[in-house]
Amino acid sequence: MATSYEPYEAIMTRLRAEMPSLADQLDQEVRHGRAVSEQGLRQEGRYEERASRLAATELPPLGKTDVAVIPYTDDERIELVREALLTLAETMYATRNAALQTARAHGLEPEIQFGDPELEVPTRISLSDETPLARVALQKVRELLANGHDVHPEVEG
Fold this sequence. Notes:
Elements: H1 6-18, H2 20-32, E1 34-37, H3 38-44, H4 47-56, E2 67-70, H5 74-105, E3 111-114, E4 123-126, H6 127-146
Antiparallel strand pairs: 1-2, 3-4
Helix pairs in contact: 1-2, 1-5, 5-6
């Protein structure tokens, strides 16, 4: 299978520029491939190909409990990116919303401070400001990625 797929490469080029750690994680996942059981190989019609390669190298055939690692298809690579972006947006909103609701429930200031004030000027995040922005970002990601897929349309808040 070719490792270059234009739509995937275009997306990954943008992710490398804007979200390098996510791009690195996705690249690593794609390089490792996906694990498939012997039964999974049979269902995908790849068992015979794999069995003949194992026989050619004089290795034993795959058993029922064995797992093979196979490359992701082009569509699977795009789906990995899609799911990673959606999960990131959902988590971004859910964590901010949960923290905001917890702060309100306990009468706390809805602001998070990062850093040690004795060593540096702390970074502050207003949950009252950030939560609605994260909600809008989640809705936008869902709209962009919907493309006929179920992208969990419910947004609480």
